[in-house]
Amino acid sequence: MSAIVDDIVRRLAAGVDGDLGIPGKVVKFNAGEDGVIVLDSSGNPAKVTSADRPADCTVTMAAMALKRILAGEMSCGAAYMAFTRGVEGEQALAVLVQPFLRRVAAAGQGAGPAGRG
Amino acid sequence: MAAALSKAATNGRREPTGFPHEVVRNAWYVCAFRSEVVADKLLARRILGQPIVMYRTQSGKMVAMRDACPHRFMPLSKGRLYKDGIRCMYHGALFDETGACLEVPSQHQIPPDCFVKVYPTVEVEKWIWIWMGDPAMADPKLIPDHQYLGMGSPGFRSVEITPRLSQARYHLCNENLIDDTHITYLHMGQFESGNRVHTPPEVTQLGDWVRTRWFDPDEKISNYFKMEFDVDYDRAPRALVGHFCPPATHCVWIEVYDPKNPQAMPKTLRIAFCFTPESDTSTHWFVCESRNYRTSNPEWDQFMRESFHMIQSQDLGAVEGIEQNLRNARELPDEVSFRVDASAMRARRSINAMLDKEQGQ
Fold first, then answer.
1. Smallest Cα distance from A80 to chain B, Å
2. pLDDT at residue B83, as a whole number
């Protein structure tokens, strides 16, 4: 797992407030050689990890794109459109997880530069 | 005559062949979303070169008037709403919703020319339309059918896209949208498989309207479209239909069919545009997207807005770059056209015909 994925997982995990927007489902961001980011709502509590596992929806996307979303530099819609290299499974889950990503991004911006990942 | 003048240098600039060099005035243009004009608020916007102030009366009636006090041309949008009118906060002149002056605080007599021009407006679905030309010709029946544009169609949910201003004349915006083969390169890899540019659309003239239709029975569905349309097909029949209602209204229909049941109603996105000239070289983009899937999920609204803004930024970069060249290049050769420009050429002819009619030729 790369440092960038490690940082993304750390930030997302800190932002889990019980609602990933995908009840009972698992969404995986596959960042290739950098590793994976798994948003897991299949259990209670929901969690974000870098441990690979089967997912209901897998979005293949550069880790840098996720980092830009969390830094507030790019909207989810724009990042998905520009950087998604593949999407498999239940497509809707990729959209439904966006509010969680936005919440984490907003929290990071409120924390100042140190929190921008 | 518009067509003849358009090839010649205009105001020291060289214009592309057949390029409409003026703005059609006798037409309905969108001036705002209905949601933008709310109680107790003045909204200022320049339309066809004119400053306009918009507001609602106490009963909710929409008013659009020239944003200039006839006394010293102070913007009335810097004034204050007073009952159903506006008081200019320079010297206190008060105007009602018809533009009539009710009061000049510094004198008893109201000068006969002291009134503000009021423009006809019509509210339909999400949009407010304004008529900047001869008010006697302002027939609401000339406003395009909004169900055709996607708004108010049964089974569709409409999403407002935040209005943006482009520093490019409206003809460039029109032609950007009419020519959908630019998708392959300008928006490379984002929502199309890459073969759009190789297959010219059918072009049909329906009265003043120009219609382009492109259909691929086995289109590779892009990653973005999979998420946007909530489908898991790698390939499916897909249609892209563009309608241009001159001088400035468009609707793009994107239809994704279920490959296992192509007779079923396709998942459809209808994107309505009105390119309202702000000035000779700048244009308001009013856009409303309507879809017949995920109609109760507001998360899709946000996704659609964000992805639209991404694409729109690329389009703005193109048309604004062209505008800069048209305005500033010391010399440009005659414009070259490709086969795919057939629909844009028809659109130019439609607009020039409107201009000729407007100018009594």
1. 7
2. 94
Six token digits for residue B172: 């460039």
Rounded to two decimals, the ipTM of the complex is 0.75
Q: Indicate yes or no: CB of A95 within 8 angstroms of CB of B311.
A: no
Rounded (10°) CA dihedral B210, B215, B219, B225: 40
- What is the tens place of the pLDDT at every residue in B142-171? 999 998 898 988 999 999 999 999 999 999
Q: Which residues of B touch A84 (CB under 8 A)?
A: 223-224, 227
Residue with tokens 């509210």: B123
The span from the CA of B90 to the CA of B72, in Å, is 9
CA quadruple B234, B223, B320, B65: dihedral sign: positive
How many Å apart are CA B313 and CA B310, to the nearest integer? 5
Contact B266, B239 (CB under 8 A): yes
B347 phi and psi angles, rounded to 5 deg: -65, -40
**Is the Cβ pair B307, A21 closer than 8 Å?**
no
- Catalogue the long-range contacts made by B111-116 (C-beta closer than 8 Å, 24 or more residues apart): B113/B70, B114/B70, B114/B71, B115/B70, B116/B65, B116/B66, B116/B68, B116/B69, B116/B70, B116/B76
CB A99 within 8 A of CB B300: no
- Alpha-helical (H) ranges within B209-341 are 223-229, 298-328
* Phi, psi for B126 (deg, rounded to 5): -85, -15
pLDDT in tens, A41-97: 999 899 999 999 999 999 999 999 999 999 999 999 888 888 888 899 999 999 999
- pLDDT for position B15: 59
Residue A27's pLDDT band (cuts 50, 70, 90)? very high
Please state the pTM of the whole predicted model: 0.88
In angstroms, what CA-CA distances link B162 with B253, B312, B357? 20, 11, 34
Taking 50 as the pLDDT cut, the residues of chain B under it are: 1-14
